[in-house]
Amino acid sequence: MRPNLLYSSTSREGKKRYAFCQDLIKDLNLSILFRSMAREDIWIAEMIPQIVLTPLQTPEEITYRHAVIKDFANNKPFLEKMYDIALRQKKQFESYKTNLDNNRMRSTSYTSQILEQLNYLKQGQMEFIHLRELLAANNTSIRSQGIRDLYNRLGTMPLEEIQTKINDMNLYVDGGTIRYRISLGGGLKMAEIKILSMENMHKHSKDIKKNKLQELYHKYVKRNIISLNDEELKKEVNHLNEETIHHILSMFQPYLNEMLSFYQDFAEEMAFYKGILQFASRMEELGIDLTFPQVLPRGARDTSFTELYELSMAIYTQQKPVGNSLVWNNRKETFITGANQGGKSTFLRSYGIAQIMLQCGMPVPAKEFCAPLYPQIFTHFTRREEEQLNSGRLREELKRMSEMIQHTERDSLFLLNESFASTTEKEGSEIANHILQAFYEKDVVVIMVTHLYQLARQWYKKQLPEVGFYVAERKENGKRTYKILPGEPGVTSYGTDLFAKLIEKLNTVQK
Questions:
Q1: What is the value of pTM for the model shown?
Q2: Which tens digits make up the pLDDT trace of 458-474?
Q3: d(C-alpha 36, C-alpha 282), whole Å
Q4: What is the spatial distance between Cα 329 and Cα 497, in angstroms, rounded to a whole number?
Q5: b/e per residue, 249-282, with b = 16+ CB within 10 A?
Q6: Which residue in 139, 163, 315, 338 is deepest, having the highest Cβ count within 10 Å?
Q7: Long-range pairs, 221-228, Cβ under 8 A, ≥24
Q8: Is 378 helix (H, G, I), strand (E, B) or coil?
C-alpha cells in the first residue's frame, strides 16, 4: 500500500528529474524558494528540491496535487498532525534500520532482530490506526481524491486484527504460552510441528489474584503445561520458541516491507505539503499573491499571465516587485530586447520560476497564470564566473549548450539569457541563429533575452506567426518601468544612459 498523496496510484512510476537541475537552481535562484519552504526544517529542506525538480507530465496529475494542497490549506491543524505522524515514523524507521544493522554485525542469533522487528511492527501498526482515526475525524472536510482514497484504503484494512496478532508475539518478551502439536519421528525426534495457539501473558494478568494462585496453577500448569527440569530440554524448547517467533515474523515480512515503503513515501509527501503551506503562509504575511495556475497539456503553445513577478526577489526584499502581464498565443520563440537594467533578466527568471512551480503542482507567483507542460526545462544564462574566462567563455557556453541539446526532446523549453554575447555580435548572431533555427524546426520552445540586434532583427524580418518580440520599456526621460511590452527589436540597449550616469558620478567626485 502507498499513501499516494503526491501521485495517483498509476502515475508514480517513470518520473524523472530535470536533466540540469543545478543550472535551474543557480540561474533561477531556486535556493531562495527552497529555504522559504523549509524554514529550517532539515527534513523538508532535504526533500523539497527532489520533488520540486521532478516535473509532472499531465494536467490531471497537477490538479490532483492542487486538491490536496487546498484540503491542507483549509485545515492546517490537520496538516500538522499528519506531518507529526510522518516525522515520528521517519525517526522510528531510522532507529529500526540502525539497530537492526548493528545487531546483525554483533550477533548471529535471532533475538535482537526479533525484538527490533516486533517493536517496529507494533509502533507502525499503532500509527496506522492513529492515522485512520485522524482521517475519520476530518472526513467531512476532505475534498481531494488523494486524501479520500488514503482514508478508504486504511478503512478496508483489518488493522485491529493485525495489531492483535502482533501483540500476541509479545510473549517472546513478556511471557505467555505457545501450544504445539508435535509428531515424533525416528529416534524420538520432532518430525512435524504445528502451532495451535499463542497467548500473551497480559491476556490473563487482569484475572490473576494472589489468593487464587493454587487454582491458577491447577488450571494452567497441571492441565496445559509440562514442567521441564532438564536444562538441555529447556534450551531446546527455548530454541523452538525463538524459531517459532522468527518463522511467524517471516510471514509478516511482506506486510513489514509494505509498512516501510508506506511510511517512507508518507514522510516525503508530507514534507512537500508542509513546505508549500509554510511558503504560502510567508507570502501571505508579505501580502504577495499566489495563484493556482491553469495547466495546458504538453505541446500547447498558448501562455498568458497577469502580474507575474520574480519570486526570489520578492522573498529577498520582502515586498512585491513590478509584475508583468502578457499573452503569448501559438508561440515557439520569443525575443526580449531593450534597455540595460530594464528588467529583462528579472522577467525571464520570473517566468522560469513560475513554470518550475507549475510543473510540480505548486501555486505560482502571479494573479493569473496559464501555461503548458514541458518535458524538460533548460536555462542557459551568462554567469559572472564565465565573464572571467575571457577567450574561453564562448567555448564554455557552447559546451553547456551542446550538453543540453543532447537531452532535449520535442516540446522542451529553453530560457536563454544573453547567450553567445561573449564574442562579436556578428559571430554570436550566426551561432545563435543556427541553434534557434534547429529548435524552431524541432518544436522546441525558446524565450531569449538578447542584445544581439542582428539576430533579433533577422528573425523579426521573417514575420513568422509563431515568433514574438518584446522590449523592456524605457520612458523618454530614460526611466525604466521594468515592464516587458510587445515591440520591435531596438538597435540600442541604451548603454549611453549608463555612460551618462558614470560621468555624472565622476563629476560629483571631482567637485
A1: 0.83
A2: 999 999 999 999 999 88
A3: 8
A4: 34
A5: beebeebbeebbebbbbbbbbbbbbbbbbbbbee
A6: 338
A7: 224/177, 224/179, 225/177
A8: strand
